[in-house]
Write a structure and sequence with these properties.
Blueprint lengths: L1 H17 L15 H12 L1 H8 L10 E5 L11 H19 L3 E3 L3 E2 L4 H15 L9 H24 L11 E2 L3 H16 L3 E11 L4 E3 L4 E20 L2 H9 L6 E6 L10 E4 L4 E7 L6 E5 L3 H7 L3 E9 L7 E2 L9 E5 L12 E3 L5 H9 L34 H11 L4 E15 L7 E11 H12 L3 E3 L2 H11 L3 E3 L1 E2 L10 E3 L2 E6 L2 H14 L1 H4 L21 E3 L3 E2 L1 H6 L3 H9 L9 E7 L6 H11 L11 E7 L2 E3 L15 H6 L9 H11 L6 E3 L1 H25 L16 H22 L3 H30 L5 H21 L4 H9 L3 H4 L13 H4 L4 H27 L9 E6 L7 H8 L1 H7 L4 E4 L11 E8 L2 E9 L3 E2 L6 E3 L7 H10 L1
Parallel strand pairs: 1-2, 1-25, 3-4, 8-11, 9-14, 18-26, 25-26, 27-28, 29-30
Antiparallel strand pairs: 5-6, 5-17, 7-8, 7-13, 7-16, 9-15, 10-11, 10-12, 13-14, 17-19, 20-24, 21-22, 21-23, 29-32, 31-32, 33-34
Helix pairs in contact: 2-3, 2-25, 4-20, 5-6, 7-14, 12-13, 12-18, 20-21, 20-23, 21-24, 22-23, 22-24, 22-28, 23-24
Length: 989
Amino acid sequence: MLRVSNRRFYSDLAHKYSSSVLLPKTSFPKRSNLEKVQQDLIPRSSQQLYKEQLNSKPLNNDSDLFIIHDGPPYANGDLHLGHALNKILKDVINRYNLLNGKQIYYKPGWDCHGLPIELKALEKISKKMKKDSSTVLSVGEIRKLAREHANSTITSQLEGFKSLGIMTDFEHNYKTLNHSFEINQLKVFQGLLKRGLIKRQKKPVYWGCQTHTALAEGELEYNDNHKSITLHLKFPIIKPSVQLSAILAENSIKDVKALIWTSTPWTIPSNKAISINTEFEYVILKNTKVEDEFVIVANELSSTVLSLNPDFESTNIVVPGSALISSQYTNPLIENSTFPIIHGDHVTSTAGTGLVHTAPGHGNDDYFVCLANGIDVYSPVDQFGKYTDQLPEGVFQHLKGLFVLGKGTEEILKILGGSGMVYYRDDNYIHSYPYDWRSKKPIIIRATPQWFTNVGEIKEASLKALEDVEFIPARGKNRLSAFIKNRNEWCISRQRSWGVPIPALYGRNDENHVIMDEESVEFIIAKIDELGTDAWFEEEEDIERWLPARYAGQGKDLVKGKDTMDVWFDSGSSWNEIREFLEENQITNRSTYADVYLEGSDQHRGWFQSSLLTKVGITPATVPAVAPYKKIVTHGFTLDEKGFKMSKSLGNTLTPETIIKGQGKALPGVGVDGLRMWVAQSDYTNDMSMGPNVLKHVGDALKKLRITFTFLLGNLNDLRSAEDLVKFEELNKIDQFALSRLAQVNEEVLAHYEQYNFNRVLKTLTNHLNIELSAIYFDIVKDRLYTDGVDSRSRRAAQTVLYHIFQTYLSLLSPIIPVMTQEVWDFTPKWIVKGQSNAILNGVYVDELAKFQNVGLEADFAKVWELRDQITTLIEKGRKEEKTIKNSLETEVYISFANPESSELSQTLTSLESELSDYYLVSKLHLNKPLDPSSAKFHYSNKVAVAGEFVNISIVNATNCKCPRCWRYSSISEEALCKRCDDVVVHEH
């Protein structure tokens, strides 16, 4: 009963003095409010902030201007996590540059043309009609529906982007369907034509059979598990060359067949030649089951070929490749056919037979080698991927109308199977094969008349321009350079309604009569500028209004072309948006349009490349070309927590809205700052995982930051002005150390920002916050903050450090979590705010911190903390293992050295002796003083090595009583305050 009574008495005393304890006070909310975030905090910290900074001073100083050019997202479908990742990364970079004193120009855009939008727009109508509406509606009607669909999608996506806290003016955006954009794009086309880089050719192109249009390389996806049926086929050589005839005669061989290998049997009717390599040696194989049947293959591949058909063996008769040239063979399925054997550099000895089936209408290598040998392009396949009536006479004629990758292949295999031509058939050949990225179906290569940009002509200048471009990650440079090195042409024409027209005129009765010259194109562009692109697609019996004076009177003999431009040409010419902005603001001293282009790593094949090619292509050949960007940053793609790509079919998708708002207990919402923090903490240069576990860690980290800002605001509430701050030299040593470390962390974080290493930004800050501030400094200074006199130097010193921590963290976190930092700023004392609407406008917090760095002091404290760990271990033994104490304040510490005079550590501790008990959170510390073990109720000792020296540590129970106000064991009795608290209470009273 006596113990209970004493405890109650002590509690009453503590309550009596609680009002004199200076606990933190702030009205900063403990948690965010979603409605306030969306309706107030995001607009002020994003759209309003963007306008304020952009209009804060004239825009004619290029050194103050920072521009990220927005790679336009496609205006089709809802926002996904990849959209959020992309926009947030750009926003973090923009905000960091704003923090660094730059003016930010960032104009969001949308890519609006293309077949996917056209198909989506027609989908509903086609369902109602129960037929393909594109065959019923006019081009004008299709374009109207597509435009409406694109604009509707943009409206939806725009609202979604706003919710991500993106700092821009979304109302002033660019769209590739805008009239001004289309005119600028046509002028880029005109510039390429002026340089002689635009040409029309009938040649093989990638073709989407479902989408009925040519495809660019950037529109392909490669399926590494595509299965094809392959054939080794025998073609009789009917007219051997003189040299080959001599070899055959010498070895009593009457006839020999060329053995080819193909993974596209459907192209056999289009065969026009067999390519060999004159540098190779070939060998003749003999059929042991059929008399006088011989085939010829590359010597290096003969063992592989023989392993496929046990009926054959090698004759060891070697034929030089040169002996095959000028020989002629026949296709037994085409009556009276004769085709040449030609040399091709593309023929390799890594696979196949060393003799390559060559169909110039269905392969690029085939096309070029035939072109060099005067062999015409031939492609009896239509836009639907079906055989036409141009098939060779005979057994192939019944294939007309069959889909080449379906029933057509089946029928070809039947024909070849009964022809005696098959040496070997493989029904399970797994290999990489290109698919249409829209339809997700395999493509074919098909020769059609198309418009091309001559990339080969500007390849060297493009690669030269890339030398001045920085890549993050660095591997991107090799990737983009490789794509350009391997590209000679860019097929820019598409067979669809929804797009920017290619300004070509054709003979009404002769499509090979083409008019496209500088005069006609300039006139047509001017007319489109007057009437709009839709007018170009209007049906007209007389197109006189589209003709310049040179072609006057031919209006009824000509028609307008129906081809539209590749959407990569659309987005690739979007740098015009920056050009116009710079010209409007008379900024003439800028060498490169954009500081940064940032997109997914797939854009090395797409937008990065098309932007470079269009920019270099319109630059006069006599002028050094400059890329439209100074820096290219690429990011990976989003995966679920198991490492699988997110897709609706797998049911593992997470939308930005779901992550922000949550989805029940299984997936609590983390808010827009949580989504942004996930982006920043991820290694965006690789693929990134997202899921409930990841979001839990993000939510915990965000909560920790909110608690930290609450603590800082609460303890700064009675600071009245900068005059209350304590000068550095008057601070406690631990305060000086804390500021020195803060300065170092600030420097490291800014360096990480500069290199766009955002995950290192957060990791550095998190480590500093958790390990140095929360676990050590905050814990230590709470006693001073709460129990020292309100205006005492020691308390103001601690507040001075918190002030600098507050300013630094607010500065460094404002690019990543702008909503929280805006809300913190709203509750910040006015004398700190100084009328600024947002903390980021105060700039980087460097000048104040630079003078605080003290390497020697940090080295001293490294030893102090090493000793602290040893002391804590001994205290924990008493608290956890033997339960003789409840907390460290119940103890006193004795520290001694064998030779204190010669000990560097002892000298360091002596210089800090007055503060050491605070550092170790004990009631008293004795340095190099004798201990009487008999006076202690408990006693833990150890001899440990610290900083290379041996130290004797002893932990004993505190000899004084617990102060009812500060809870240190420093009172002469439990009923009395310790001297410090008594002085404070008396003074305050």
